[in-house]
Amino acid sequence: MASIDLDKVLDKAWADKSLPEVLAAPVSALKGVSDRDGELLQEAFGIKTVRDLAELKYVRWAQALAALDAAAK
Radius of gyration of the chain from Cα atoms? Predict the structure, then answer.
């Protein structure tokens, strides 16, 4: 089972929200992602929500490549 410290990855305003609310939130709900970053992600990739970002094929490809590299070590 996966776990994560939400205080470390979410903006304070989103830390007490449910998982469905967080996934439907704008990407700026993620700590370190500004509103402008969110605008740029939307322009470049059509990303509007945290779920959209998680499901972006380029993110999944990069994660797979990193996992392969970690397994090779």
Answer: 14
The one-character DSSP state at 32 is: T
Q: Is 62:68 a contact under the CB 8 Å cutoff?
A: no
- Give me the phi and psi of 66, to 5 degrees please: -65, -40
Contacts of 36 (CB under 8 A, 6+ apart): none
Question: What tokens appear for 2 in the block?
Answer: 């996966």
Q: Whole-number mean pLDDT of the chain?
A: 95
CA 8, CA 18: separation in Å to the nearest integer? 16
More confident residue, 37 or 15: 37
